[in-house]
Design a protein that fits this description.
alpha/beta; Rossmann fold; 2 domains; 6-stranded parallel β-sheet; 7 helices; binds nicotinamide-adenine-dinucleotide
Length: 164
C-alpha cells in the first residue's frame, strides 16, 4: 500500500515515523522542501506527489485542510486528516458535501473521541450520573508551546483544543 503524507511539522513528522514502519511505500511532501528531504532521508520514505497514492494523510496547518480534503475527494483518494476538517462551519460543510458526493472515506483525527476516559465522562454526563455540570477544567500537557506562527493558523489555543 502506498500512502501520501502532507505536512511534516510536529504531528506530521510523528505520523511519518509510524507510517514508514507500516506501509509498503510512504510518499512525503511539505511546503518546506528541505524538511521533506530531511524526513525522507531519515525514514523509509521518498519525496513526491502525496495524492498519487492509495490513501493520503493530511497534517498541514488547519487553514489548509478543507482545500486539501476537497482535492482528495475529487481524486477519490481516501483521506485521514488531522483535526479539524476546517476552521469554520461553512468550510466543514463543504468538506462533508465533497465526501458525500464522491463517496470517498474522510476520517478526521479526533483521537480523544476514542479515548476510554473521555467516553466514560461523556456517558456519565449524558446519563445524569454527574448531575448538573457547573465547571469544566481542561489541561493540555504539551511539553513545549507551538511556534508563534502556529497560533494564527490554528484559530488560537481555545478553538484549537476545545474542538476535541
Ligand atoms: N490530533 C491532535 O491531537 C493534534 C495534535 C497536534 C496537531 N494537530 C493538528 O495537526 C495540524 C498540524 O499541526 P502541527 O503542530 O504539526 O503544525 P506545524 O506548523 O508544526 O507543521 C505544519 C507543516 O505543514 C507544512 N505545510 C504548510 N502548508 C502546507 C501545504 N499546503 N502542503 C504541504 N505542507 C504544508 C509546514 O511547512 C509545516 O512543516 C493542525 O491542524 C493541528 O490542529 C492535531
Amino acid at each position: 500500500m502506498r500512502v501520501g503524507l502532507l505536512g511534516l511539522g510536529r504531528i506530521g513528522a510523528f505520523h511519518a515515523a509510524t507510517l514508514s514502519a507500516l506501509v509498503d511505500e510512504l510518499v512525503v511532501s511539505d511546503a518546506d522542501q528541505s524538511r521533506a528531504e530531511e524526513v525522507a532521508g531519515r525514514l523509509k520514505a521518498r519525496v513526491g506527489d502525496p495524492f498519487d497514492a492509495d490513501a493520503v494523510v493530511i497534517a498541514t496547518p488547519t487553514a489548509t485542510h478543507a482545500e486539501l480534503l476537497v482535492r482528495a475527494c475529487d481524486l477519490r483518494v481516501p483521506a485521514f486528516c488531522e483535526k479539524p476538517a476546517a476552521p469554520g462551519v461553512a468550510e466543514t460543510i463543504r468538506v462533508a458535501e465533497a465526501a458525500e458526493r464522491s463517496g470517498t472515506v474522510v476520517h478526521i483525527g479526533f483521537q480523544r473521541r476514542f479515548d476510554a476516559g473521555y467516553t466514560a465522562a461523556r456517558e456519565a454526563l449524558r446519563s445524569g450520573e454527574l448531575g448538573t455540570l457547573h465547571r469544566v477544567h481542561m489541561i493540555t500537557a504539551d511539553p513545549a508551546p507551538p511556534a508563534p506562527g502556529y497560533v494564527p493558523m490554528s484559530g488560537g489555543i481555545f478553538r484549537d483544543c476545545h474542538i476535541h
